[in-house]
Amino acid sequence: MSVPASPPVPVSPADLYRHGLRLLLDKDVSGWVGLWAQGGVMEFPFAPPGWPRRLEGRAAVAAYMRPYPERIDLHDFPEADLRIHETADPRTIVAEMRGVGRFAGSGRPFDMAYIAVVTVEEGKFTAYRDYWNPLAALDADAEGVR
Question: What share of the chain is helix, strand, coil (3-state, %, to 5)?
Fold first, then answer.
């Protein structure tokens, strides 16, 4: 009996990024965290006071993301708002996107624009700078999201 081959793992930064968005919409946080290198670093340059600015290592990213689906119910990353730009470094992309959904606690709408600078090495995220709108943290903080 032959075992069907597993689907290929995305290797280009753009493909890996798109795959990661699909996992987030599927609320598969452990799958998304599995896309990270052990020593990957996630940064939030515009994080307001009291919010993390830097997460070092896959375990820190996992701890940060674990409660995410219980706080924000993402419905879509609209394709019309998703732009992935290649850079002079073939390992790095700049992604513009918008995430929409609802705050899980209140049902209030969630609509956030993001720009991310993402570096991928050997098929894993190694660096991810997430430039999100810190003013939205006021809404998120009211929902207990951090």
Answer: 25, 35, 35
Spatial distance between the Cα atoms of 126 and 4, rounded to a whole number of angstroms: 30
Q: What is the pTM of this model?
A: 0.85
- Asked whether the CA dihedral 92, 32, 46, 74 is positive or negative, the reply is positive
Over residues 54-105, the pLDDT tens digits come to 999 999 999 999 998 888 899 999 999 999 999 999 999 999 999 999 988 8
* Rounded-to-integer distance, Cα 27 and Cα 24, Å: 5
Q: Among positive and negative, which fits the CA dihedral 51, 120, 77, 88?
A: positive
Confidence of residue 6 (pLDDT cuts 50, 70, 90): low
**Cα separation, 28 vs 25, whole angstroms:** 8
Cα separation, 2 vs 5, whole angstroms: 9
Residue 139, Cβ density class (10 Å: 0-12 exposed, 13-18 middle, ≥19 buried): middle
Rounded CA separation 81/10 (Å) = 21
